[in-house]
């Protein structure tokens, strides 16, 4: 038995962590709290409002809007998982989080993040069928198939999160309990583990990398066919319609996958803690509030449905 093994045996296992949160000067505490609180309220109100709008209008009970409603639910889920704890820690003196709370928060976040990847890919496929095979679209993209794709996205997201959660239980924490992050993410936990996390790093690289590559390739292939179809028609009206239909989704995909690639596919050990937090801040706080705005402002049916409800009441 090596002295290192003896140290690990004698060390007290930690069951609580300190979330350092965002680096800021004390005078920025209140402005940051108010700013993030406003973003959180807009996120929850915007996404749940979009879900309620789609649910209440029977004209929106078609695949495109069922996917959009599912995406809004996942964005609200991610925001609810991460933001409240961050807001509390901005004002609280104690920034402690128990190991069990930490594991639950990571499982919830990983579930939401992975599900969003799959939903963005299925939405790209939906646009491909709508533009490249418009006459067959009602027969191919039925509500039944749509619901199955949504269910598969949620199940796949949960299974992926559960795998990483299982591998986290092999780690022990005995040296440092300081997490340089504003929520319990997997990479910061690896960095303070006193058990070798090489297997965990490998699983993140293989599984998360495979999911991101698969979903990004699905999006790229779908839009390659869409672009090819539009260019063949050589119609300015067709090009405008395709851009109008796909522009919001392309913007959402670009904003979401960029930070994720840097976080989980690039070697995490080479990433600076501050850079990790900025990437995380973008896809956990900023994107969930942007998505309902991106999709709603460019969608005539959503605007028309909202106008009818406002006029009615």
From TrEMBL:
InterPro entries: GPCR_Rhodpsn, GPCR_Rhodpsn_7TM, Olfact_rcpt. It is found in: Cell membrane. The chain crosses the membrane at residues 32-55, 62-83, 103-125, 145-163, 201-230, 242-265, 280-297. One of its GO terms (cellular component) is plasma membrane. GO terms for molecular function: G protein-coupled receptor activity; olfactory receptor activity. It is a multi-pass membrane protein. Keywords: Cell membrane, G-protein coupled receptor, Membrane, Olfaction, Receptor, Sensory transduction, Transducer, Transmembrane, Transmembrane helix. It comes from the Eukaryota. Residues 46-295 form the G-protein coupled receptors family 1 profile domain. It holds the Pfam family 7tm_4. Belongs to the G-protein coupled receptor 1 family. This is Olfactory receptor. It comes from Oryctolagus cuniculus. The lineage of its organism: Eukaryota, Metazoa, Chordata, Craniata, Vertebrata.
